[in-house]
Design a protein that fits this description.
The chain is α+β, with helices and mostly antiparallel strands and 81 residues long. The protein contains 1 helix and 5 strands. Helix content is 19%, strand content 22%. A 5-stranded antiparallel sheet has the order 2-1-3-4-5, covered by helices on one side. The longest helix has 15 residues, at 15-29. The protein is globular, with a radius of gyration of 13 Å.
Length: 81
């Protein structure tokens, strides 16, 4: 598989490694969600992307809708405190 972050390309073995590399690049850049590019994963069944929070999603950001579940990454439930 290949992870693309803007013009940078990284060979990755799975979604976990793709997310880890994406988050490291994001943190090093110091950029926020409005300027840091979405990660694109090439070489798996259909398009996948990585959102700013490091979660991997099937499709493209334009396909996202409320209630979608990531294919990799934790989905946290709100807890009353």
């Amino acid at each position: 598989m290949e992870l693309r972050i803007g013009s940078r390309k990284h060979t990755v073995t799975d979604f976990a490694q793709a997310s880890q590399i994406y988050c490291l690049a994001r943190d090093i850049s110091g950029e926020g969600s409005s300027t840091f590019p979405t990660g694109k994963i090439i070489g798996v069944d259909g398009p996948h992307y990585i959102s700013y929070n490091g979660k991997v999603w099937k499709g493209t950001p334009k396909n996202w809708k409320p209630g979608d579940v990531p294919v990799f990454g934790k989905r946290f439930k709100a807890v009353a405190i």
